[in-house]
Amino acid sequence: MSLEIVPADVNDLHQVLEDHGRYWGERDLRALHQPVLVREFGATCLVARAEDGIRGYLLGFVTPDRTGYVHLIATRDDSRGTGLGRRLHTHFAEVAGGQGAVRLKAITSVTNEGSIAFHRTLGFDANVVADYDGPGRPMVVFTRTLA
Description:
By secondary structure, this protein is α+β, with helices and mostly antiparallel strands.
């Protein structure tokens, strides 16, 4: 099956939200899918599109300090384990680097073992930062320098 990674638009975001459970299972992360991210940072918000719909996506942006920040990344339940997450990250790194990013960053909860393992396989350093998400709410902060 043919698959292309392209910049996302608001219609893609609506489609992802319609199929939210296929990407996130029981976790309700719909509130994190803000249309403003796609509208304002469209070049760094990506979808992996196939003939049967969106197989995966990444919402990200480049900060003023030249950090490519990955806000969300997900693959559809029938695309896990295919390397699609790695492809999305690689594409994002290229686009972010083209916008001047010199490093990448992402965060996850300390209990999200899948995300921690995934980011480590991509070469990210992982550090637990106390109170990152508010008092008593540590997060794992991933960082990686771009070549």
